[in-house]
């Protein structure tokens, strides 16, 4: 009887762990595809999502055009991210993958940020990029690499990472993400540009900065 209880407990723990993993990442599809729709009256409920009736799916549900066009990098960080996720291609729903094009002005950067729901794999097609990510507490180790056209680098899920264009000419990269919508949290924007603002006393203590510096940063973000 004791052995049966042990087996039952082990099965329960494995099942609980599996459920935890399933809730942390995009669900695996139980059908060929599940084209996302906003109106549940026009679809069927499959695999936890409202999906277009597969018989009504068309090529445009799986199509996006425009990644050949450079993004506008005329901004304070000198970069632009063109996203192709489930919002642009509804056929990506439940498939656990998406794509971005990143354009960098000379010496522009994709500032430190995280993707809470996806790992990123990036390939450089033009220019020279200094890239890196920081491991989690308590080590906070910086792992960096200089990339040239054809080079590939991986940013693990949830870790803070960045890319910086080292050259005086434009750079371009493409990246795949292991989620239909990986999400993005740009660190500076989130911390100093939250709505409503974080109490400056909190940030003054957290970053060991003068309060005037904190309020100035909040004013520009």
Automatic annotation (TrEMBL):
Residues 1-24 form the signal peptide. It is found in: Secreted, Extracellular space, Apoplast. Keywords: Apoplast, Disulfide bond, Glycoprotein, Manganese, Metal-binding, Secreted, Signal. Residues 65-215 form the Cupin type-1 domain. It comes from the Eukaryota. CDD domains: cupin_OxOx (cd02241). Transmembrane segments: none annotated. Belongs to the germin family. This is Germin-like protein. It comes from Hibiscus sabdariffa (roselle).
């Amino acid at each position: 009887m004791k052995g049966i209880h042990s087996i039952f407990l082990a099965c329960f723990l494995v099942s609980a762990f599996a459920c935890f993993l399933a809730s942390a990442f995009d669900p695996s599809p139980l059908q060929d595809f599940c084209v996302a729709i906003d109106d549940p009256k026009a679809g069927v409920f499959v695999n936890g999502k409202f999906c277009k009736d597969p018989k009504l799916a068309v090529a445009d549900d799986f199509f996006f055009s425009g990644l050949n066009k450079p993004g506008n990098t005329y901004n304070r960080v000198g970069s632009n991210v063109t996203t192709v996720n489930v919002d642009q291609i509804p056929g990506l729903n439940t498939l656990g993958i998406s794509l971005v094009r990143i354009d960098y002005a000379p010496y522009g950067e994709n500032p430190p940020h995280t993707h809470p729901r996806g790992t990123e794999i990036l390939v450089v097609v033009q220019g020279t990029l200094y890239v890196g990510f920081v491991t989690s507490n308590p080590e906070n180790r910086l792992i960096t690499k200089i990339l040239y056209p054809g080079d590939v680098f991986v940013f693990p899920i949830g870790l803070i990472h960045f890319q910086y264009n080292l050259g005086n000419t434009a750079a371009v990269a493409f990246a795949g993400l292991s989620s239909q919508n990986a999400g993005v949290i740009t660190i500076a924007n989130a911390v100093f540009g939250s709505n409503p603002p974080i109490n400056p006393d909190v940030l003054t203590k957290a970053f060991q900065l003068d309060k005037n510096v904190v309020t100035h940063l909040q004013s520009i973000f």
